[in-house]
Design a protein that fits this description.
By secondary structure, the protein is mainly α. It contains 6 helices and 3 strands; from the N terminus they run ααβαβαβαα. It is about 35% helix and about 5% strand. The chain binds iron/sulfur cluster.
Length: about 180
């Protein structure tokens, strides 16, 4: 039996972290940012019968300063990587990254020098979504999973430490090309 059951009705117990997580997960605004074919699935998720508005996420923002979710929809070329990083740096804190599709997550079938072999070498990724292309239902499922993650995220310095550690681990990991021996 919890303490809540001994209290008269009308009382709600929580922590500041839980309240902040609840508010944050329900107020995500994605940046308008599509790179390749996966972006078509992202656009259909944002419109039509998939109704991303039920999560309050329908206003895809044209300015990164008004966005806190980057959906990397498509392969990232080496030339595009610094631009992607600049957009990420300009986004409002706290911010999250969803790698949509196999190309964004690992380079996918584009195992060559022109494509970044995983966008986690450029920005810290919070959630990976497999598939080529992932259907809108899969993107919605990943967004719901991300919501759960956001709801449990630590606040303040703890969050900054977690982001810095994830970024450092991603940037120092070998590229898929370097670790190809493991895949043979
Ligand atoms: S995962 Fe498939 S659909 Fe998505 S960008 Fe790559 S090739 Fe296109």
């Amino acid at each position: 039996m919890g303490l809540e059951e001994k209290l008269p009705s009308g009382f709600l117990l929580s922590t500041v972290e839980e309240v902040a997580g609840y508010a944050r997960k329900g107020s995500l605004w994605p940046a308008s940012f599509g790179l390749a074919c996966c972006a078509i699935e992202m656009m259909s998720t944002a419109s039509g019968r998939y109704d991303i508005a039920r999560f309050g996420m329908e206003p895809f923002r044209g300015s990164p300063r008004q966005a806190d979710l980057m959906i990397v929809a498509g392969r990232v070329s080496q030339k595009m990587a610094p631009v992607l990083r600049q957009i990420y740096d300009q986004m409002a804190e706290p911010k999250w990254v969803l790698a949509m599709g196999v190309c964004a997550s690992s380079g996918g079938m584009f195992n060559n020098y022109a494509i970044v072999q995983g966008v986690d070498h450029v920005v810290p990724v919070d959630i990976y979504l497999p598939g080529c292309p992932p259907r809108p239902e899969m993107l919605l499922n990943a967004i719901i999973a991300l919501h759960e993650k956001i709801a449990k995220m630590p606040l303040g310095a703890n969050r900054e430490d977690a982001v810095a550690a994830a970024e450092q681990a991603a940037l120092s990991s070998p590229t898929l090309m370097e670790s190809r021996g493991l895949l043979r």
